[in-house]
Amino acid sequence: MPISSIRAALVASFLATSALAQLPTRAELTARPDSAIAAKLPSPALDENAGPVEFLRVAESALAAGRTGEAQEAMEMAQTRLLIRAVPLGTTGVPSDQPAVKLVSQALQALAEGDRATCLRMIKAAAMEATKQP
Predict the structure, then answer these.
(1) Which range marks the domain in which residue 121 is found?
(2) How far is CA 96 from each of CA 44, 49, 125, 129, rounded to the nearest angstrom?
(3) Considering 52, 73, 84, 98, which has the largest number of Cβ atoms within 10 A of its Cβ?
């Protein structure tokens, strides 16, 4: 089985877990009138094969320029890439404990709350943590 198929299967199985049910959905985040989360997100100008750090840098630049939708999409793409990991059979439902993944989640939450300063800090911290990963 090609590695890309294995990665896709791992991502799909992780996304199907109940762990993600704990996170607010895009619909819930965009339903708030004061939410900075965009309902329709523009894609970042990066190759789809770019790594998580590149997506986090784009998110940082987009947020600094006030393009919250692009920032959110870039953070989500970075988080997806961070979640691609090998796990033992039967443990696919266990949420990732990677610090970078948690920091991106916190950045997304800060963005949803309209706290751009915290969001930028979390993005920078996530990028630093992501550079430490193999």
Answers:
(1) 3-132
(2) 25, 21, 17, 14
(3) 52
Number of domains in the chain: 1
pLDDT of residue 65: 93
Q: Tokens 């004061």, residue?
A: 34
Structure tokens at 19: 């762990």
Tokens linked to 115: 């706290």
At a CB cut-off of 8 Å and minimum separation 6, what does 96 contact? 14, 82, 83, 85
- Residue 5 tokens, joined: 């198929």
At 33, the pLDDT band (50, 70, 90 cuts) reads low
Q: What is the pTM of this model?
A: 0.66
Amino acid identity, position 21? A
